[in-house]
Amino acid sequence: MTTLKKKDTAVVIDARGPRFSAAITAVVLASALATQSLLLIAFQLAVFLIGATKGPQFTPYAFLFKSLIKPRLKSDFVPEDVRPPQFAQAVGLVFAAIAVAGLASGATIVFTIATGFALAAAFLNAAFNYCLGCEFYLILLRARR
HSE on the CB side for 60, CA within 13 Å? Predict the structure, then answer.
C-alpha cells in the first residue's frame, strides 16, 4: 500500500495495505457505532477523505502499515492498481458523511445504518480480502465499455 511503482501510468500499491487499513477501519467504525461517537466517525471520515482524494497510500493507516507491518512481512510485494481501493475510499467517504450528518442532526438511525454499511464493507475486506468498493468499481468500469 505504501510502495509505489509505475505500471503503464497507473499507480500500483501493495495490496496487503488496504486489507490492514480495513481492519483498523472496522475497529474504528465498530467503536463509533457502539459509542455513537461523533469524534470517531468524523476521524474516519477524514481518513476516507484522504484516501479518496490523495490515494489510500497516504492515509494514517497506510503510514502504520508502512512503518510497523510491512518491514516484518516476509512475502513479496503484492501489486494492485490504486484506482479500485481509491474508489472504495470514496464510497466509504459517502457513508461516513451520511453518518456524521445523521448523528449531528440527531437522526441516530441514519448514523447507525450508514455506519453499519461501512462497517460491513470494511469487515469483508479485513476478514475475507473481499473489497466491495473495489468490485463495484470494476463493475462500473465494465459497464462503461
Answer: 10
For 133-144, b where at least 16 C-beta lie within 10 A, e where not — what string? Answer: bbeebeeeeeee
Which amino acid makes up residue 21? S
Give me the number of domains the chain comprises: 1
pLDDT in tens, 38-82: 999 999 999 999 999 999 999 999 999 999 999 999 988 889 999
Q: How far is CA 92 from CA 29, 75, 138, in A?
A: 11, 29, 16
Q: What is the sign of the dihedral through the CA atoms of 78, 81, 83 and 84?
A: negative
8 Å CB contact between 127 and 61: no
Question: Would you state the pLDDT for residue 117?
Answer: 98
Instruction: Enter the C-alpha cell of residue 4.
Output: 509505489
CB 126 within 8 A of CB 26: yes
97, 45 Cβ separation under 8 angstroms: yes
Domain span including residue 29:
5-70+79-144
